[in-house]
Structure formats: C-alpha cells, structure tokens
Amino acid sequence: MGENGDGAPRSAAGADPVVTVVGAGLAGSEAAWQLARAGVRVRLHEMRPVQMTAAHQSDRLAELVCSNSFRSASLDAAVGLLKDEMRRLGSLIMTVADRTQVPAGVALAVDRDRFATQVTEALCACPEIEVIRQEVTAIPDGVTILATGPLTSAALSRALQGLLGQHYLYFYDAIAPIVTADSIDRTVIFSASRYGRGGDDYLNCPMSRDAYYQFVDALLQAQTVPTREFERCVYFEGCMPIEELARRGRDTLAFGPMRPVGLVDPRTGERPFAVVQLRQDNHAGTLYNLVGFQTKMTYPEQRRVLRTIPGLAQAEFVRLGSLHRNTFIDSPRLLLPTLQLRAATSVFVAGQLIGVEGYVESAAAGLLAARNAARVVRGLPVVVPPATTALGSLVHYVTDARRRDFQPMNANYGLFPPIATRERGREKRRALAARAQRDLELWLTRHGAALTAPGADVSAGGA
Ligand SMILES: Cc1cc2nc3c(=O)[nH]c(=O)nc-3n(C[C@H](O)[C@H](O)[C@H](O)COP(=O)(O)OP(=O)(O)OC[C@H]3O[C@@H](n4cnc5c(N)ncnc54)[C@H](O)[C@@H]3O)c2cc1C
Q: Is 28:46 a contact under the CB 8 Å cutoff?
C-alpha cells in the first residue's frame, strides 16, 4: 500500500482505501460499521481478550461495562434526541439497541449480552471489516480513528502523550455538577467576583452560619458511590470531593471552595458566612457549574443535598458530579469539530477519549469520525453537523477552543444555541428538538448521499 495526499493508504491500483480503527467499544464499533457501509475497508483493532481492561468482562465488541441503560428514549431529553439523530444517520449501535431492548420505562435499556453479541456478529460478518485482536501500542500510519475509550491501554496512552504533549492527556475526571441558567433563583443569589476583580462574572449563593452547618451535616450523611478497586488513587488536592473536605473538619469547606472572602452581598452590605459560586459554563450563558463541587455522592443524593443550597431549590441538573478514572484528551485545544487532530488531520479521535460522556454520546462521536474519515479517503471535504443538533452541540462543546478547565460532558439541551421562544421547561425542549430535526434534515440534503447512510441492515448479525 502507498500513501495518498491525505495520508490515506490505497492499494497499488489506487482503489480500496483502508481506514484503521483502534478500539472496538461503542465508538469504534459504530465507526467500523459506518466506514464499511460507505464501502471503505476497515482494520478494526481490539486488544481484548489478549489484553483485558480493568472493567470489561468479555471478548465481545461494544461491551457495556456498567449499566445496561442508554438513558432516556424521549425527545424531552437531549440524549433521546441524539438517539433519534443516530437512527436517521443509520447507526448500528441504535439498530441493535432497539432490537435488544428490555422494558425500562422511558429509558432505552438493552439485554447487554444480546446487544454485544449482535454488534460483534454484525461487524464480523462485514466483508469490508478485518477484526484484529491485538493491542495497538503506537499511532498507526494512514487514516486512523482512535477510539480506545476511558481505559485506553498504558502503552497507547504513552504514544498519545508523545503525539499530543504530556499536558494534553488526562487520566481522571473531577466533574462538578452543572445547572441550567433558567433554573437558578435570581432573587436569592447575587452576582460578583471576589474583591470586585472580573466584574459580576460569578453567581454567588450566600449561606448563613446555620445554613452552612446544616449543609455540611447533609454532606456528611449523604450516600456516596463506592470507589472501584482500579480507581483507587490519592486525590489531587485540587479535585478533592466536597464530602471528603467536609470529613476533614466542619469548617474546611468554608476555608476552601465555599470561602466568602472578597464577596459582599449588595442587598445586605455584608459578607455571607459561606458561598457556593456558580461559573458560566458555555458561551451562550445557558449553563453554570458549581465551582469546586466535584463529588462522589450518588445522583439522587446530589439532587437532594445540592437543592438545599440557597438559589438552587429548583435547580435543573444537566450533569451531575463525579470522580473516576477516565482517559481523555484536551479536545478544545487539540481537536477540530470534524474530530480530526489539529496537528495530524489523518488522525481522528472518537468516543469517550474526546471528552464526551456516555454510551450514546461515544457511539455518536464514532459515527461522525467515520463519516469524515470516509470522506477524507474519498477526497471529499469533511463536514460538521449544525450546532443546533444534539450531535452538533456536543461536538461544538468539546471542541470549543475558548473553553478552559475542560471536563467530559453528556448530551444536554443546555449545550444548544438559544432559541427565540417564551416557552420554558418541557415546551422549550420540544422546540429545541423540532429545530434540531429540521436542521439535521437540511444538513443531510445539503451534503447528499455521502451522509445519508444506507439503512443499518444487520440481518447478517443473526438477531
Ligand atoms: C467503569 C466504567 C463504568 C461506566 N459506566 C457507564 C454507564 O453506566 N453508562 C454510560 O453511559 N457510560 C458509562 N461509562 C462510560 C463508558 O465507558 C463510555 O460511555 C463508553 O463505553 C465509551 O465508549 P468508547 O467506545 O469510547 O470506549 P469503550 O467502550 O471502553 O471501548 C474502547 C475499546 O478499546 C479497547 N482498547 C483500549 N486500548 C486499546 C489498545 N491500545 N489497542 C486496542 N484496543 C484497545 C478496549 O478494550 C475497549 O474495547 C463507564 C465507564 C467506565 C470506565
């Protein structure tokens, strides 16, 4: 094989482009399928079972490492809309998920064994796909999609650090919760930066002495998620969970992330006993994160305890806090919205490795990377979905070069550009979904058949 101008390997006759996909989890499996459906040959490298990760249990492709839920199936949730978009784009993961679903109310949950088996069979039955059971330890030559996920092997992590620079690859999530701007009670909070430096950039939730100690008690009593064996590590001081800080002493938080120094509530002219600061999280100003509030409280406990914070009684959480082992790259600095590395455009990155969070989001990133990889090897211009779609909003979020302190993100309506409507809550989400569906159709029409996937016929997969 030789190399063409895009770095795409071609056969001696100049035909049959090949793309290498590394990692056959949710993103890599979807990517391989999309490439094969576009008539591109695929070398799909998966290291299991030769080398296992600390979380996977089997040799099957697209194994779900934890929950069997793909979360909400409703358009009221952005992840439901993302599923709808993926179906329109001919997703293998969605086709098999729909075929293997089990009853789960408004969620789409699957029989995990049937799901992984059917994805594996569908991919292995594709004549275009060669599955290679081998750990990849160096960045392959030619057009490549890296989709090795949150538990990328140590050797490939080192190779990635060599390519990207060691400050651009992270190994731990320290996620603070994020709420929608609409759901913050502005009559309770005040806007100010410490000592007036930086204008009114922060929203401050003021707490009295009594409110603060009640909050600390609630934190100390809250249930937390157990730390898995392979996640055990000493937390960096800068990403200590708030409940751990509270355990160090009842005043620790008041001297740490909840310190009130330099902040005066203009309504009382006094400094509160403690504050929770909220910082704008996206350019549109529709999302705010709780500064320094990474936590291992369970999700229901986070909703309960954090809604006791003044101003957050009605908070709508688009992301809850967590701390766990996760390999991901600093996408805002490294990645183009086409999912190509800025420094090496023949290398695409997809899945959790780019800082999206969740099964559906990871698969969706695999889908986009593959569509663009197929376009590169065919000499077509690469494409980016509109920011008004669920896929486009997620990709724009993780690749927004203005973003600092990057942490992984789920699909959520807070990422969407504002829409001119007086509606709130569910009606507003419906309006955002309708705009997304219309814009996706326009985008598909504009880019023609190269983007409109042939239907995901997985009959060869032996459903
Ligand atoms: C412990 C844990 C629990 C999670 N629970 C959930 C959950 O309940 N719900 C949810 O939505 N998300 C969950 N996630 C996040 C989840 O991992 C992602 O949502 C999703 O699996 C990521 O998809 P991916 O394709 O990027 O990575 P993966 O699905 O992990 O796939 C990556 C693949 O690459 C392979 N690989 C790694 N290194 C190499 C190498 N060097 N060479 C070849 N192959 C390699 C791995 O074996 C793996 O098969 C969890 C993550 C972890 C770590």
A: yes
